[in-house]
């Protein structure tokens, strides 16, 4: 798992002092290689033990392991971005960057986001999500901002294979829909940071009503994750020009594709029949228009 992506996903749940360490590392990952634990602690206005606790919060034994892991990760990324002009990942687009440089950076970061997300996708959680969706009576989906588009994409896919799916376009409709769910239904929410109030409430109401709840997020320790029975985690990093809304979209869509294909496979005969019927219906309409 990428150390930088793991720090990004857990940043919101860290205490203030550990959060300052996380921010320093995310802003300049190489600081871990050039600073001792004491120097990093001073840079972040905190103590050596806090830096060590930060390391343990991301699954490492201490600062020495963080330095080794970060050195290996930065080396891999430098090799992978051989076509991306310096400065590398962690810095943003400069005012004098060429169009070719912008395209190269976007390609690198988006490919990396999909790669890290799918490589680290918990297959046990995914299998549980497939079981829920494939056998659901009703499926309600909700997301805000760019996540709304992702919810709409999954709605379209599930609708085409004959499932009773609905994507809520507004918070009012989402909360009403969640309150009307029950056992056998599934509520699916999309939230990069997991803190959007209406998303948290959507999951809470659905869960209270007896429905199963699933969240796709970059923050598995977020308030929304606390209301979700299952959580599928994306692994993406933000920069000033690639805030959560932009960085999350491609990786969320990759998770949606994995979920949809697995559900369609589970319902293979019904899916093939439904896709054939919908294709014929659209083709017939196109002939009528021509």
Structure description:
This protein is α/β, with parallel strands linked by helices and 290 residues long. It folds into 2 domains: 3-86, Arc Repressor Mutant, subunit A; 123-278, Rossmann fold, CATH 3.40.50. The protein is built from 14 helices and 5 strands. The chain has helices at 3-10, 16-27, 31-34, 37-43, 48-57, 63-80, 99-119, 123-134, 146-160, 171-179, 197-208, 223-226, 244-266, 268-289; strands at residues 139-143, 165-168, 186-191, 212-217, 230-233. The protein has a 5-stranded parallel beta sheet with strand order 2-1-3-4-5, with helices on both faces. Helix 9 (146-160) links the parallel strand 1 (139-143) and strand 2 (165-168). Helix 4 (37-43) packs across helix 5, helix 10 (171-179) packs parallel to helix 11 (197-208) and helix 13 packs across helix 14. The longest helix is centred in the last third of the chain and has 23 residues, at 244-266. The chain is globular.
């Amino acid at each position: 798992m990428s150390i930088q992506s793991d720090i990004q996903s857990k940043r919101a749940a860290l205490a203030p002092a550990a959060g300052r360490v996380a921010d320093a590392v995310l802003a300049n990952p190489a600081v871990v290689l050039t600073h001792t634990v004491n120097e990093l602690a001073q840079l972040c206005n905190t103590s050596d033990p806090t830096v060590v606790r930060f390391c343990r919060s991301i699954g490492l034994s201490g600062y020495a392991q963080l330095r080794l892991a970060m050195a290996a990760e930065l080396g891999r990324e430098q090799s992978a971005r051989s076509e991306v002009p310096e400065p590398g990942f962690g810095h943003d687009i400069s005012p004098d960057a060429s169009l070719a440089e912008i395209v190269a950076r976007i390609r690198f970061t988006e490919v990396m986001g999909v790669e890290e997300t799918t490589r680290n996708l918990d297959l046990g959680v995914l299998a549980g999500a497939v079981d829920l969706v494939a056998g659901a009576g009703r499926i309600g989906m909700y997301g805000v901002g760019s996540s709304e588009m992702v919810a709409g994409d999954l709605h379209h896919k599930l609708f085409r294979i004959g499932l009773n799916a609905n994507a809520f376009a507004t918070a009012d409709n989402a909360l009403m829909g969640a309150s009307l769910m029950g056992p056998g239904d599934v509520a699916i929410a999309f939230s990069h940071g997991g803190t959007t109030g209406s998303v948290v409430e959507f999951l809470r109401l659905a869960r209270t009503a007896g429905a199963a709840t699933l969240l796709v997020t970059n923050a598995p320790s977020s308030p929304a994750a606390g209301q979700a029975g299952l959580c599928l985690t994306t692994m993406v990093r933000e920069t000033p020009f690639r805030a959560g809304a932009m960085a999350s979209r491609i990786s969320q869509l990759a998770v949606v594709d994995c979920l949809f294909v697995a559900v369609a496979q589970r319902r293979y005969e019904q899916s093939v029949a439904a896709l054939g019927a919908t294709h014929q219906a659209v083709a017939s309409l196109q002939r009528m228009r021509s």
